[in-house]
Amino acid sequence: MIGELYRRLLLLLRRRHYQRELDEEMQFHLEMAGAQKFGNVTWLREESREMWGWGWFERLTQDVRYGLRMMAKTPGFTAVAVLSLALGIGANTAIFSLIDAVLLRDLPIREPGQLVSLSRSNLQNPAMNSFGYPFYREVRDHAQSLQGVICFASASPSLSVGGSSERVTGEMVSGNYFQALGIQPYAGRLFRADDEHAAGADRVVVLSYGFWKRRFAANPSIIGSIIHLNTIPMTVVGVSPPNFGSLNLGAVPDVRVPITMQPQMYVSDSMLEERGDWWLDIVGRLKPGVSKSHAESELTAMVRNYLQVNQGDKPRSEFAQKVFDSVRMNLLPSGKGVPQGKAKKAALQLYVLMSVVGMVLLIACVNIANLLLARTAARQKEIAVRLALGASRGRLIRQLVTESLLLSAFGGLAGILLAQGGARILLAFLTAGQTGITFDVSPDGRVLAFTLGISLLTGLLFGLTPALQSTRPEVAPELKGRSRVELRKILVSAQVGLSLLLLIGAGLFLRSLLNLEGMDTGFDRSSVLVMTMDPTASGYKPAQVKPFYRTVAERVAGIPGVEATAFSSQGLVTGSQWGSGISVEGYQPKENDPGPNRNVVGPAYFTTLRIPMLQGRDFGPQDNEKSPHVAIVNEKFAQFYFGNTSPLGKKIAQGGQKPDFTIVGVAKDGKYSSLREKTPRFWYIPYEQRTNVQNLNLFIRTKQDPVQLAESIRRVIQGIDRNVPIYNVKTLEQQIDESISTDRLLATLSTFFSLLAALMAAIGLYGVMRYSVTRRTREIGIRMALGAQRSTVVQMVMREVVIFSALGIAIGLPTALALGKYVGSMLYGVKPADQLTLFAASLLMGVVALIAGYLPALRAAKVDPVIALRWE
Amino acid sequence: MEIPPGTLYMLILKTLLREPLHGYGIAQKIREISEETLDVGEGSLYPALQRMLIKGWVTAEWAQSETGRRARFYRLTAAGRKQLTAEISDFNRATRAIYRVIEAT
Question: Helix A777-785 vs helix A790-823: angle between axes, to the nearest 10 degrees?
Fold first, then answer.
């Protein structure tokens, strides 16, 4: 078998040599046979060679060579085709490689298929994936249906090495984390079950490979040495492997510490024994042979039991009982990352983009098919001659399809190169503003297979129809020409329809982007710098924190160019929010009411951000620890709790406490955690009147470009204490821009691709009309000789243009309406069936189509009857 | 008369059993031994030889022919002998069976 293969290969590689031997052998036979007849030598030689089994290969190389010659002969056509294919295939590959990285790839862990994450639901909330540490221990030790149960929670401690401090990303994990996932150390060791020992006692760190390389220059001697996290000395025990990021897809924690280090990482009281704190994710493996539903019912019983113990003997209200009865535990497959991860939320956007670029590729295919139809028409004579000389139809089709496949192969190659850069740019857009998110988007086997697949598919798609058409035998040539024109017109209508679909999508995304960009956020975002700092992570005692913040505010205010500064515990438009229960004097809170959101801010917060005060005053330096407690509420809050009476002087507090914060002001409503939110009820208190203050954001309004001041502000703060790291330094404008980067990406890409599609449709339409006009030159000439006006000729051509653009629009509009529901959730301030967008897109498509059709119509009108009649 | 289908390889292998021969020689030999009954056309002979080379049943080498001209001589290999035995036994079984069918009353 092997020998046979070897001999065949030899025949291929040295086929010239063997060919000569065969020739000589034939010659010898001929001489020996003498006068006796010897059949057709060429035929015999071919037959003998056929035995080598390489005929298909030789025909293929012949076709490829011929195809390449054809490509070189029509460089314009080749360039247009390859370029549009490269764009189409490149865009598809780029987006597919993101989908692959985010949604399809298994994590590099042992048996990813078994992995499930715990998520509980009740009638109020369909998915809650946070649990308490005591519950984790119960599941780990007692759940019969799961094994290898691990837990993790994120943290961002302050790392200090040799006097300077920086904020790093981190994860706290259970001791069995690495072992249960089957992850081997890159260097040193990873955690063991006994690293999860007692609160605050397990002072060991595992570095991620990337961080080890970046921060410590991959120095092996760092293993075994001490680094400080939130001022706690901890021993580096090892480095995790480069291919493993996190179960939370996209996140790559710089450091990992045992879950028992939670009090030190959060600089707070221990939550480890708190049954009512919900803060960590639990992931486990289904035991072999155990069904998911069986495991879910076991865990539902466990979580209900846990909640019941928390409740104790206290009776529940009727509603609370209903909520309790609806509690269920769900197990979500997590072998490709836990489903609640940030990156997974981009899934919808990715699918929308995939459909957009899919349609663009389809339009490109149709366009090339159209061009090929026109070209094969020009080659009709050649094809007819070859058919007449006895070439089989299959052989001709194969050759024409080979030419198409060559085009798509070139397009695919260029596309892969484009996709390489494209995927990275897309990724930057999709993850803008989220620190510590990285993905491997380098093409793997699946991506390459995808590209190969779509290249082949597109080649067949646009190549087969023209090939079948042009080689169809025995039909009267006149008839054949007509049916080809009809086919091309149908194709053009389809292109118009698809392009319209894309234009409408682009219009919707553009409008919602404009709505987001142009919205009144309730504060003035220009010339404001934001930065975050956390002295508690550098070992500050609670009593030292407020004096530090006071000093910072004072010194920064003294920098030339700084107009005003204010602290705030919540960022603006960063997605974070802080719900709080509320107690309002003389108001009975309703059950099932999520309550207002809250922020803790420094003096002059409203002045600095230019949030208008509708009543009362801003916080000031007079609101300190010793003065009466004060609060400011927003309009919505005032309206909700006090109706039309003035809220000033009313007393409120957080849920369950005696209302002792007096309302001193009402601020205008605005945006708080995101641009898309519905205005929540909102209230503010001064940080000076809180006992426990941790990290705060500093807003600095500047008189000049805030970016230029950033460095001197940082230096001033570092001058107070260089151990307090400053992070997330951005302008407020930048922060808001980042929060809508996905919307911008969708709007930009869909606009670009829809215009490209419309252009391709226009080219297609122009090509078809021009071809049809040329074919009808004689007819037009006769009509004109018989007295037809030029305008009549133009009308005649334009009537056709109008008919099939209208047909395309008639297909596109209802399709757009039907598909609208899939993008509804991604829009802002505009409905999928927005009439203005539908109208504008149709108008644009119509105008483009008319222009593309008008040029050939003009040409038709310029036909000189005398020349036309002599034509042919 | 043309060679009965399916027997060409067997006939070529058999003629090569005694000594290496060139293509023309093979055709001559078959005609001679069959007393001019079987006629191997070059149209089937040379493709068959190419195929047998690939299969490894024969090897070929260039040598001087009886007329002094260079010719390609085919030589049976061990694999070729095995193939020949197998083909002959198959052929015998088939002919016996065919006899039984056509002689049956």
Answer: 130
8 Å CB contact of B70 and A47: no
Backbone φ and ψ for A331, nearest 5 degrees, come out as -105, 120
First to last CA, chain A: 61
User: Can you read off the two tokens belonging to residue A327?
Assistant: 């509690």
Contact B72 A50 (CB under 8 A): no
State whether residue B51 sits within 8 Å of chain A by CB: yes
Hey, is the C-beta of A48 within 8 angstroms of any chain B C-beta?
Answer: yes
Contacts of A11 in chain B (CB under 8 A): 54
Would residue A574 be called left, alpha or beta, if left means φ above 0 and alpha means ψ between -120 and 50 degrees? alpha
Identity of the amino acid at A577 = Q
**Nearest of A155, A215, A145, A148 to residue A175 by alpha carbon:** A148
Instruction: Return the exposure string of A607-626: e unless at least 16 CB atoms fall within 10 Å of the residue's CB, then b.
Output: bbbebeeebbebbeeebeee
d(CA B10, CA B81): 10
Are A28 and B46 a contacting pair at CB < 8 A? no
What local confidence, expressed as pLDDT, does residue A609 receive?
96
Other CB atoms within 10 Å distance of the CB of residue A480: 17
Contact A857, A767 (CB under 8 A): no
If DSSP states are collapsed to H, E and C, what string results for A687-711? HHHCCCCCCEEEEEEECCCHHHHHH
Distance from CA of A8 to the nearest CA of B (A): 6
pLDDT of residue A779: 84
Q: DSSP of B44-83, one letter per residue?
A: HHHHHHHHHHHHTSEEEEEEE-TTSSEEEEEEE-HHHHHH
- The 10s digit of each residue's pLDDT in A750-793 is 998 899 899 888 888 888 888 788 778 888 888 888 888 888 88
- On whether any CB of chain A is under 8 Å from the CB of B63, the answer is no
Mutate to test the interface with B, among A7, A51, A54 (most CBs of B within 10 A): A51
Q: To the nearest whole angstrom, how far is the Cα of A25 from the nearest Cα of chain B?
A: 7
CB count, 10 Å around CB of A330? 18
Q: Whose structure tokens read 């988007």?
A: A441
Which residue from A635, A675, A667, A632 is spatially nearest to A650, judged by alpha carbons?
A632
With an 8 Å Cβ cutoff, are B54 and A8 in contact? yes
Strand partners, A686: A601
Q: How far apart, in whole angstroms, are the C-alpha atoms of residue A618 and residue A612?
A: 10
- The pair of structure tokens assigned to A546 is 């407020």
Question: Pick from B47, B40, B28, B53: which is nearest to B4 by CA?
Answer: B40
Q: What burial class does residue A8 get, using C-beta atoms within 10 Å of its C-beta: 0-12 exposed, 13-18 middle, 19+ buried?
A: middle
The whole-number pLDDT of residue A821 equals: 86
The residue ranges of chain A whose pLDDT is under 70 are: 1, 34-40, 340-345, 431-440, 473-485, 871-872
Instruction: Say which amino acid occupies A194.
Output: D
Q: Which residue of A has its CA nearest to B47?
A: A48
> What is the C-alpha separation between A661 and A629, in angstroms, rounded?
5
Please name the helix (run of DSSP H) or strand (run of DSSP E) that holds residue A683, with its range, or none: strand A682-686
